[in-house]
Amino acid sequence: MDEQPVITSRRKGRSGTQSMLIPSEGMVADALRAAPAGRLSDLAALRRGLAARYGADACCPVTTQRHLVRLSQDASAPVWRVVDPDRPFARRLAGGPDRIRERLAAER
Q1: pLDDT at residue 1 greater than cutoff 70
Q2: Could you read off the pLDDT of 56-81 as tens digits, one per residue?
Q3: How far apart are CA 17 and CA 105, in angstroms?
Q4: Which residues contact residue 59 at a Cβ distance below 8 angstroms, ignoring those fewer than 6 apart?
Q5: How many CB atoms are located within 10 Å of the residue 37 CB?
Q6: CA angle at residue 93 from 101 to 70, to 5 degrees?
Q7: Residue 11, pLDDT score
């Protein structure tokens, strides 16, 4: 763990709180590289894994999606391994759903 995680506390429900990891782009990129090649992994599982790794209850989905969009633009990490091409979010990535399908097929 070379990066210092940013963990904030936020309200959850009426009386509880939870710790929320605000991941860096590097944290997300490393998690993407660890995802199995050639098959679609679950984005929610990636966020749960990041939260667990850094000792938080949850990982910020908005920040994670922003990093995915940025990483797709320079192709520095295998974003296609966790973004379902049939979901609306896939259209926000560079190349869109078609590129995700192509990259997954190329890794098989």
Answers
A1: no
A2: 999 999 999 999 999 999 989 999 99
A3: 42
A4: 20, 21, 23, 47, 48, 50, 51
A5: 12
A6: 130
A7: 79
